[in-house]
Amino acid sequence: MIAHKCPHIQVTIVDMNQERIDAWNSETLPIYEPGLEEVVKACRGKNLFFSTDIDKAIVEADLIFVSVNTPTKKSGVGAGYAADLFYVESCTRRIASVATSSKIVVEKSTVPCRTAQSMRTILEANSRPGLRFDILSNPEFLAEGTAMSDLDKPDRVLIGSLSTPEGRAAQQSLIEVYSNWVPKEKVIGTGLWSSELTKLAANAILAQRISSINALSAICEVTGADVDEVAYACGLDSRIGPKFLKSSVGFGGSCFQKDILNLVYLSESLHLPEVADYWRQVITMNEYQKRRFAQTVVSSMFNTITNKKLAVLGFAFKKDTGDTRETPSATVCRFFRQENAKVSIYDPKVPEKQIFLDLTEPGVQDDSAVVKKQVTVCKSAMEACTGAEGICILTEWDEFKQLDWPAIYESMAKPAMVFDGRGILEADKLREIGFKVFSIGKGV
Ligand code: UGA
Fold first, then answer.
1. 143: CA distance to ligand 1 center in Å?
2. According to its UniProt record, which residues of this chain constitute the active site (predicted)?
């Protein structure tokens, strides 16, 4: 977006992974995101470059965005909660050792509070004499599937800096970049800590809304209330607002769970156990929602799904992306496997290889042959549904609303059941065709 909006700025994206960089330089980009391809193709070779020559890019740059991943630690102190800052630290050390002129280093990765401080210490301790490094925190708030429009018209851009004159000057340099397309009042300057914490806080509050409405969906199902009516009526209160109140089979994605776990870890490190418990509950509710959905499928199918064919429509964690990180669909499919069902999966954007990777338990032993006996990846929704006894909608892809439902009904074993984990189908119309329908948060 910077390259697209600022033709006078040269943007070079560097990565150690040659294959990935080659993909960015090819006709087929390594990720799917609506509108991305057009922008990349328009700017590539003009003021947008992809390269593995990291050192050259560091030497030439005035501003360096550190945008590496910060996965949840798998072992050691804080395992399962804390962010692994290995990549952030190694980037910082590389910048320190290679730079021959002063730089503004922008922390773009989501990092727990005080990482900017550590980056500064590393840079100052390792750099050549006479060089200055200013650190800014500039968290990213885009969501997948809408990345390009979020970047084009952000609700806000947050730039954290030290309150020293040098910190403020660095902040001003980045404000100037954004002011090429973002209105002034939307670019907010804060301290470094506030900026880092805001990123975790915003995601935690968003995920909390989903867990809140999902907790209410369980009440709706047993009382006969309708979760969409409740969400709509609550959302009309301007203090609550209508967005992010869509009940679902659970939230997924690479960010919500990871960031909340970070917040939990931070709270515990600060000796605030009640605060940690409070945020942990958002995740607990999400796990409950996924399990609850899968259990509903089993109980509706006469308490057994052994050897029954189940169609799973949607594997990505949300529509308009091929990303499957923390996707609720994988959790639900694993549950179905444990119950010995035969699962046929269709997703318009997730490659077959990725689905098998997500359903195979890493590390312990290679169970891919077993998975392949139970799981089939299909090329169309129709193929996945043919002969099935139940259909589960696990991603809200628009194309699922327009399927030929009467033909699907004809092709299925009876009674034919639909479990709408995303609340996107018109249940009454499906019932007229003959389906038995369950929708999240709706009494039957
Ligand atoms: C999220 C935030 O929305 C972004 O602001 C943030 O920048 C990003 O994380 C990040 O930290 O990088 P993302 O994970 O891409 O973005 O996608 P969301 O649109 O937030 O969806 C997350 C999950 O919540 C999806 O599984 C989605 O289906 C689910 N969801 C969302 C619901 O179940 N109900 C809703 O009402 C909204």
1. 6
2. 255 (nucleophile)
Whether the complex's predicted ipTM is more than 0.90 is answered with: yes
Give the per-residue pLDDT at 368. 81
What is the separation of C-alpha 388 from the centre of its chain, rounded to a whole number of angstroms? 30
378's tokens: 């299909």
CA distance 19 to 24: 9
CA distances from 93 to 86, 105, 129, 388, 435 (A): 11, 12, 15, 55, 60
Q: Are 160 and 136 in contact (CB under 8 A)?
A: yes
CATH topology of domain 1-199: Rossmann fold (3.40.50)
The answer to whether 70 and 87 are in contact (CB under 8 A) is yes
Residue 257's region, left for phi above 0, alpha for psi from -120 to 50, else beta, is alpha
Q: Which CATH number is 304-439 given? A: 3.40.50.720
| DSSP β-bridge partners for residue 159 | 189
Strand partners, 419: 392, 438
Q: Tell me how crowded residue 146 is: count the other CB atoms within 10 A of its CB.
A: 16
| CA 388 to each of CA 117, 141, 283, 381, 385: distance values in angstroms, whole numbers, following the listed order | 56, 40, 32, 11, 5
Within 8 A by CB and 6+ apart from 86, the residues are none
49 in a known ligand binding site? no
Domain locations in the chain as residue ranges: 1-199, 304-439
* φ, ψ (nearest 5 deg) of residue 382: -60, -45
Ligand 1 pocket mutation, candidates 153, 203, 228, criterion most atoms within 8 A of CB: 203
For atom 7 of ligand 1, the residue with the nearest CA is 141
Are 1-199 and 304-439 the same fold in CATH?
Answer: yes
Q: Which pLDDT tens digit goes with each residue over 307-355?
A: 999 999 999 999 999 999 999 999 999 999 999 999 999 999 999 999 9
**Ligand 1 shell residues, CB under 6 Å:** 110, 140-144, 203, 206, 210, 244-246, 248, 251-253, 255-256, 317-318
* pTM for the predicted model, two decimal places: 0.94
Query: By the 8 A CB rule, do 280 and 264 touch?
Result: yes
Tokens of 1: 């977006």
What the block records as the tokens of 276 is 């940690």
What residue has token string 């033909």? 407
Cα 285 to Cα 232: distance, rounded to the nearest angstrom: 21
